[in-house]
Amino acid sequence: MWRDHLTEIIVFTLLFLLVSAMGFVAARWRAPRDMAHLDEWGLGGRNFGGWITWFLVGGDLYTAYTFVAVPALIFGAGAMGFFAVPYTIVIYPMVFLVLCRLWSVSHRHGYVTPADFVRNRFDSPILALLVAITGIVATMPYIALQLVGIESVLKTMGVTGDNALARHLPIIIAFAILAAYTYQSGLRAPALIAFVKDSLIYIVILVAVIYLPYKLGGWGSIFDAADAKFKASPAPGDGILLNANNQLQYVTLAFGSALALFLYPHSITGVLASRNRDVIKRNMSALPAYSLLLGLIALLGYMAIAAKVKPLPGASAGSVDSNTVVPLLFDQQFPDWFAGVAYAAIGIGALVPAAIMSIAAANLFTRNIYKEYLKRDASPAQEAQISKITSLLVKVGALAFIIFLDPQFSIDLQLIGGVIILQTLPAVALGLYTRWFHRGALIAGWVAGMGMGMWMLYQIGNPATGKKHFAGSAFPLSEFGFDTKKTIYVGIVAVLVNLAVAALLTLVLRAAKVADGVDGTTPDDYFADEGDPRVTPGTERDADSAREPVA
Amino acid sequence: MAAPEPEAPTTARSRAKDHSPWNWLLFLPIVVPLIPAFFNADSPRLFGFPRFYWLQLAWIILGVATTTLVYQMTKKRGDR
């Protein structure tokens, strides 16, 4: 059956090979004198300008999985899936000033990860370890989900095998190539590939939102078709508008997801790689261009309804894989060669975030576990080497998730990931503004928030699919004793509990005069900019001696 | 009206300290997109889009305009 899709497969493969070559060449792009330093391998030299940062962070935040899963959610549930739009609008004004502070203090002190900052700010290796572990655990399933994005495309092209190994072989090859060039080029590889990825996605979406409505009878009839489908379905929560019971969920999910997004290690990696504060501020104004793209992509879900797309069967008998609706829509509506381009856009779209995420997770391990607990006196070159190897292991782990476990498991874990990464908010985000919280109270708050979040997620079942636990992030308020059908996003409640515990315990610990460590930062550090002196020497790129070529 | 505070030139660091009244504007694009009463309706439709969709997409312009304005107004004076 893959023979029917031969043109698509050829176009997909050619574009994939092109970006792979770019990934290897990237090591020489803006080449440093010495790649054996985490600032170079893991942060691209901390020197990316406005355009590169825009493509890099855009390619990083708006992942292939997003492009596949958001329309799938719209296809299945309607308006609720559109939360991705307000989510990606409110985020930028929210972090406009916060990220500048993080960038400045990291620049001054040479921090590579958010946990580095927490370690120094609160003088607490334990708190830093918790932040690092939270980051790694939240990132792993996210990488695995990028594979789900590629798989939905391969499945639609009929690239499926008879046994598990044959079915997964294309993904294993793709990830091996990705692992190899990430190992060699570090953050420069995804930064360079992001140009191709985003250009392809912009082209595909522009064509899709002009050409498809024309073929399907205009936007009005697309929305009417979706409305008719949801009116006919028995599910209470769907529809092209929100109802009285899911508005709170919509708003809290959008807000909570926005709070979580820049706590993810991979987002912070992208931000720290930029050259100065201005680059960050300009990007906070320019990145919403991707939100427009995401909003239009989301509506592909309704186009799929209007075009009467039937999703392919899922992993278990009787289920459907709704992630295949967008690839199927392209297959059905576009000429083969252009469907191939669209598939390549999704496939390559998975590589950029997967690379950045694995780099971010590797940096966390190196800086906050290896250097902190295993080898205190690790040299910069050793750090870079450990990070490179860890990034390989992280990718093998993500691959194992997809091959040996039901992909649903990764989706569940990613859902949990959003809730747990939010629990680093008081230490990382509020910590940028205030040293008021006691380090012990922050640890206790983290534990309380984690416990609350896990308990709530465990309680959520979905009668329609028969799942009893971890079936979503919409927690019914009736469980708290309220007489209502309204639901709320778990992450918001968990982080509020976290904050309450941290605040109360801070008062207690302060009253009891428990030692609180020494703040390693000064107020002025939070405004440092490019060219200001650094506390840690960092890379010795400014030293003249390093400029001589090593013969 | 935001920038020329007299204390700035006394120290070597005359950089913007993130304290500007313009920053309060940033709350606008955080709060407005999170109020469903504004957008949760079908009519009026625009190019076939129900209000729910076109208005939420329009908030993107609100976000871009606000962050751009705040950036321009709080830029370091030497850069202009």
UniProtKB/TrEMBL annotation, chain A:
Membrane-crossing ranges are: 6-27, 48-68, 74-99, 126-145, 165-183, 195-214, 250-273, 285-305, 337-365, 386-405, 411-433, 440-458, 488-509
**Gene3D superfamilies under this entry?**
Sodium/glucose cotransporter
Task: Outline the segment boundaries, as ranges, of region: Disordered.
Answer: 524-551
Membrane topology reported for the UniProt record: Multi-pass membrane protein
What is the protein's name according to its record?
Sodium:solute symporter
One Pfam annotation, family name? SSF
Per the record, the domain of life is: Bacteria
Source species of the chain = Micromonospora solifontis
Q: So what family is this one in?
A: Belongs to the sodium:solute symporter (SSF) (TC 2.A.21) family.
List keywords of the entry alphabetically: Membrane, Transmembrane, Transmembrane helix, Transport
Q: Where in the cell is it found?
A: Membrane
Q: Does the keyword Ion transport apply?
A: no
- Compositional bias (Basic and acidic residues) at which positions? 539-551
TrEMBL record, chain B:
What InterPro entries does the entry give?
DUF3311 (IPR021741)
Keywords for this protein: Membrane, Transmembrane, Transmembrane helix
Organism of origin? Micromonospora solifontis
Q: What is this protein called?
A: DUF3311 domain-containing protein
Q: Which residues cross the membrane?
A: 22-41, 53-71
